[in-house]
Amino acid sequence: MGARKKISADKRKEAQKTQYFARLQNVPTSPRKMRLVADMIRGMEVNRALGALKFSTKEASRKLEKLLKSAISNWEQKTGKRADEETLYVTKIYVDGGMMLKRLQTAPQGRGYRIRKRSNHVTIFVDTKDTNNEN
After folding, report:
1. Are 26 and 118 in contact (CB under 8 A)?
2. Global pTM?
3. What angle do CA 13, 17, 18 make, to 5 degrees?
4. How far out from the chain centre does Cα 116 lie?
5. Which helix (H) or strand (E) holds 77?
6. How many domains does the chain have?
7. In this predicted model, what pLDDT tens digit does every residue of 60-115 receive, in sequence order?
8. Which of 3, 33, 49, 56 is most buried per CB count within 10 Å?
9. Is residue 89 domain-resident?
């Protein structure tokens, strides 16, 4: 690794020590469906977001609820505080396209239609409100 890359990699590692996030990769749901649920909780207080995800009827909300609990746990581990004592917020949430499985569906007259089974990657960041104002 070159010196320039090593310096930028070290900066990135230092920045990640102050960020509290969880990542879920290759979720077998289309990114569009996951974004509908992600937009619902973006910027919300964590307890309200958990309640909204719990009572949502969408399948993507189950996976996002588990991921949010993991992000809260990561925050508790890194800071040493309890999430009940602080007011945590979902600061950022990203849904990116993942691996795509390409399949064929039989069609009339010997043809085949292409089916794209999409997946996505979700990254969720949590933090307290007062540290957001400092940045």
Report:
1. no
2. 0.85
3. 125
4. 22
5. helix 59-79
6. 1
7. 999 999 999 999 999 999 999 998 888 999 999 999 999 999 999 999 999 999 99
8. 49
9. yes
